[in-house]
Description:
The structure is a homodimer. By secondary structure, chain A is an alpha/beta fold. Helices cover 32% and strands 24% of the residues of chain A. At the A-B interface, helix 12, helix 14, helix 15, strand 23 and strand 24 of A face helix 12, helix 14, helix 15, strand 23 and strand 24 of B.
Amino acid sequence: MNPEPHLHQQLNQEQEAWVDLMFLGGLGEIGLNSMVFETSDHLVVVDAGIMFPEDYMLGIDMVIPDFSYLRERRDKIAALILTHGHEDHIGAVPFLLKELNLPVYGTPLTLALLREKLKEHHLLEQSELHLIDPRRQLVVGPFVFNFIPVTHSIVDGVGFALTTPVGTFIHSGDFKIDATPTAGEVTDLNSFADYGNKGVLALLSDSTNAERPGYTLSERDIGCTLENLIREAPGRVIVAVFSSHIPRLQQIIAIAAKQGRKVLFHGRSMVTNVGLARQLGFLQMPPEQEMTTAQLKSLPDHEIIIVTTGSQGEAMSALARIALDAHKQIRIRSGDLVILSSKFIPGNEKAISTVINNLYRLGAEVVYHEVADIHVSGHASQEELKLLLQLTKPRYLIPIHGELRHLVKHARLGRSLGMIDAQLLLATNGDRFRFDVQGAQRLTRIEVGRIFVDGKGVGDVGNIVLRDRQHLAADGLFLALVAVDATSKRLISGPDLISKGFVFEAEQSDMLDAAREIILEIISRALAEPTQDWLEIQIQIGKALRKYFFKLLERRPMILPLILTL
Amino acid sequence: MNPEPHLHQQLNQEQEAWVDLMFLGGLGEIGLNSMVFETSDHLVVVDAGIMFPEDYMLGIDMVIPDFSYLRERRDKIAALILTHGHEDHIGAVPFLLKELNLPVYGTPLTLALLREKLKEHHLLEQSELHLIDPRRQLVVGPFVFNFIPVTHSIVDGVGFALTTPVGTFIHSGDFKIDATPTAGEVTDLNSFADYGNKGVLALLSDSTNAERPGYTLSERDIGCTLENLIREAPGRVIVAVFSSHIPRLQQIIAIAAKQGRKVLFHGRSMVTNVGLARQLGFLQMPPEQEMTTAQLKSLPDHEIIIVTTGSQGEAMSALARIALDAHKQIRIRSGDLVILSSKFIPGNEKAISTVINNLYRLGAEVVYHEVADIHVSGHASQEELKLLLQLTKPRYLIPIHGELRHLVKHARLGRSLGMIDAQLLLATNGDRFRFDVQGAQRLTRIEVGRIFVDGKGVGDVGNIVLRDRQHLAADGLFLALVAVDATSKRLISGPDLISKGFVFEAEQSDMLDAAREIILEIISRALAEPTQDWLEIQIQIGKALRKYFFKLLERRPMILPLILTL
């Protein structure tokens, strides 16, 4: 359904200023964050993130938002604003820039991380990247952005105040309130408060932890646990952590320094991100604390900390290979302490468990968040969300970034502060609001969707292909090939049978003979007829085999009956 | 490797009594529990459980232990002892009984649940089932079993003391220590203590929660939370819980009674298990509290509690269908409260999240363990495990039931009580210990494994088939068919191309044309030669297409080049 006609009517009805706000992704799901602010002749996009594939998305590498809405309005698009450098906010930017050449605005680290992506996609040269300076406002058509530093599990993240003809929108970014972060800036509560005093039309706020009561702990609160663990470690320490978690990395470096351990950053993304963070001055590390892979042999074990990727059990990660004892330079030996300094992201538990068990098998001691407080979230919990509401005093609250359950819980926090239902705009992907002098109204939804990226293919794997993969994955494939002479009405060759992922053929000769019989019987019956509808006959064979296999094995392989008529 | 020769040597060396203990499953993994006690002429099996398939086991319904070791000793097998009725302890019994007709011993509920399984497998008539009576000892050859009631998340569970010529083994069963369970018996600590005083050779103890400090809460501790939630619910209450969790069901019935709500048990396994538990007197419910599906329409909402399955987001469960608004009798309306009274089992989080979000979408309020204390574990935490060690004072501790990380942590608890490494027997599947007057020694491992059950096929899906399914799942299939006249050296037909789960063909005509070219070129080159090795030519085509597709799409579909020579 195309919402355009409806929209135009309204344009004619109301001549005064308006701003439309709509969501391309990230509301009703984790990841895929992207939203749009639009006026009659300007459009601004905020974030363009990816989502990691769900289990049923077989073979899919990543998911990006459907940008059709932007494609159809390419001439209006004035800017892409990036709030921080996490994959779920910048991961889809290269795919967007491939189609639409629009100016991108971000903080130094965010753009540095984006540049690495654009290089991989050979898009760096043609891209127009602009640095955000929190001390200077950014004017894009009718939109005036003032960026507000926020604390998160990556540094250099921002929220923003967006002043428009109809009022001021506040976007929290991904944030937590931590007065003592180990790196990066403290969430600028005063700025949020200033806007609160001046009057805020709508607050768009991070709902990731809306289910968590209380306050999210400070990054520093885990320092003591980490430090004790590392101090008591008799040998080498291997810490697995997200390579973009600069505050955590800074904390580990500090602990290492105290305890006279040198630090080896290991794994491609780890080395890249650490390099960028150090160049930009976000990560402080004296050169004498660095060590090389070569020094793994020369240095005594108790002077070594290896910081690597793989805290989510990623199959290709350094840690996964170390756990399988398949890593060239790093072989686990008893005395090694491995710390997984991150949470178990839902869907990854089994992979992480396998890594942990493999490490124990090799004789390492392993510590993870289930058994020690070695991780804190980067997202605000309920009390912090309430605090932001209290400071900004918005007319409307729009919970963003989260599954529906998180958005609902976040809206309830607004109610607990005395907001009424009309002020709580519960939205999911595709929802669109119009803001004007009267306030907010819901417009017809826009079409949104998810695009699958598989290898170099973007969007060419759709539901049909996925259904086939699911079918093949569940019961495999059975292929039957016969060749018939259409003129002499004779079977020339076959049935040749091929099965893949269905049964272990060597043990199923009886079944294969029976299948051959079923096919021959249908073919010969058909050849006896005056005319043959070969397509129909293929369907008959498919049906017969399907029935036979299910009766015998209760399996439904994909059946491909091929009749070659010559 | 076949351990037999080695074993025989040792038999000749030592003539005095010995008992071998070995593990077919459940040590180094969750589920698949099965172990063996063996003397020179008797063998007893304890439990025969299933494991639910891992993500990589595509299309597999369940996993059972490899019973080869038992098959080879069928004449020695004197009994199968079942500790309780959970799938990971009795699920594989039908598969075992199909091959080996051995007497099975279990408590009333355990056997009742087993009977349901045996019926489905048409094995009930020929099976020899014996009731365990905790007050009477069971003598099987040299083995004397005394069963000890234990509290767990199912009722009628037991551990046991096994007296043998070489000493007494204690098996904890799946247990927790709960002085106030809502159904079933209290763990009989006094019996454990008695054996401790008499002297215990080895304690085999449940390691599932060995990572959890402190004590597991009593089942009663969640009653208050559940009661408040249900009292404040304005409309219907739907509770999703494991159908075998009789103590939880009893608790819900009690709360319903207090608040004047009738209870509808819904879902096949729920109805069956509740029926069995009531027959056997484990579940008390006055008839007037029952309601029928028909009464869903007639009764006022605030008088209804629906107890159903699907707390793990199982796709076919009643709750999943309710959440999709695809359930005939039960349509969610605002005011409904849904309680998921169970933990999120690793691997199921995403499915559960989807159900929760769908329920919110339909207007229900949803409560789950992340947001309220509505579930307690059925397994002992560290302090309880230490308590059992303290009471039984075993010479050896053998942690059972758990991933390696759990077994390791459990062994450490033993060390914390002053046991030395020689007393802590850390074992995984396949490990075998010999116990004699000197004590325990490790023998060569036995061969163990996992058998995949797919539909009616047991063990016919092996790693080759799984690898093919993984390959097909990731990138699908590409099939190229040509027919050539071997005598006239002419191409008669093709190339015909078929792809499944690879690309959306309609959008890939250029690629398909190119593939056709690649094939034709190889074929024509081959036909120009004096002789043709068609197998080799198929391999060439496969290679060429593989290279082309990867360059173009970075995908590796399974490629089936078929050359029909006529």
